[in-house]
Amino acid sequence: MVKGIALISGIIFIAITVAAIFTVWQIGIPLAKKVQMAASIEQKRTLFADIDRIIKEVAAEGVGSKRTIYFSLDSGVVGLNASTDTIFWTVETDAPVMSPRVALDVGNMRIGNMLATSVYTENYSNRSAWVLENAHLKVWIARIGNATSPQNISTSELILGLYQKDTATEYNIANITTITIDEQTESMFGTGWTEAERIGDDLPYGLVSAFINSSYAPYRIDFRLESGTDFLIIEGRI
Question: Are 175 and 168 in contact (CB under 8 A)?
Fold first, then answer.
């Protein structure tokens, strides 16, 4: 099937997402199937690199300049996301051509497997928050201070809320969830800050870290939401 996309002057960032049906490497998948999918991915990488080059040319020529690109689509779906200015290609496959939750950025292009997590900021109950979101969960983590300006911090106020999309249930869990080191109460309080590892869409996972300097010990708490999962990973590091 031959399709054409008319490109009008503008800047569009390229994203290529490979969504695997299975996240476990499977035995017995024919090598030919893996080679075929790898070749298809490489073909799309070349196609999107060409699209990116043409978009830059159109943008440099000014308003009203345009090109039409024709291409064949042997598998997957090509789409446009106007809200993120992204052209994307997705395909579902059980061929183990790429590890799950891995992303590789090449210029304006992102190639990866299970890129379905977003990290951004918004207010939650009149408090500034980091948001970790995938297809199943939306989690609000308090935005507190920064590395050069730490503020008072309590582990019971880090997770502000959680929305379970599958059941359409929201939980306001501020002051309900507490985190301690060695079950020591003094480790719950101190000064510190929270920060996101990366903000954006089409991420393999979202990570927000809290850096806490308590009277018991300085430590770090990582809140990690991975694409395709319905649970939040909380990990402490001293």
Answer: no
Please give the torsion angle defined by the CA atoms of residues 53, 54, 56 and 60, in that order, rounded to the nearest 10 degrees: 140
What are residue 191's DSSP bridge partners?
152, 213
Decide if 90 contacts 20 (C-beta within 8 A). Answer: no
CA distances for 23 relative to 31, 103, 118, angstroms: 18, 15, 20
Cβ–Cβ < 8 Å for 218, 212:
yes
Query: pLDDT tens digits for 85-126?
Result: 788 787 777 666 666 777 777 777 787 778 889 999 999 999
Tokens of 114: 């299970």
| pLDDT tens digits, one per residue of 5-26 | 333 333 333 344 444 444 444 4
Tell me whether residue 32 is exposed, middle or buried, using C-beta atoms within 10 angstroms of its C-beta: 0 to 12, 13 to 18, 19 or more: exposed
The sheet that has 151-154: what strands, in order across it? 151-154, 189-196, 205-214, 218-226, 233-237
What is the distance, to the nearest Å, from the Cα of residue 148 to the centroid of all Cα atoms in its chain? 26
Tell me which residue has tokens 């992204």.
86
Q: Say how far apart CA 25 and CA 98 lie, in whole Å.
A: 10
Query: Exposure of 123 by Cβ count < 10 A (0-12 exposed, 13-18 middle, 19+ buried)?
Result: exposed
* Residue 155: both structure tokens together: 């582990």
Residue for token digits 């935005």?
Answer: 143
Q: Is 125 left (phi over 0), alpha (psi -120 to 50) or beta?
A: left
Task: Say if CB 141 and CB 160 are below 8 A apart.
Answer: yes
**pTM, entire model:** 0.72
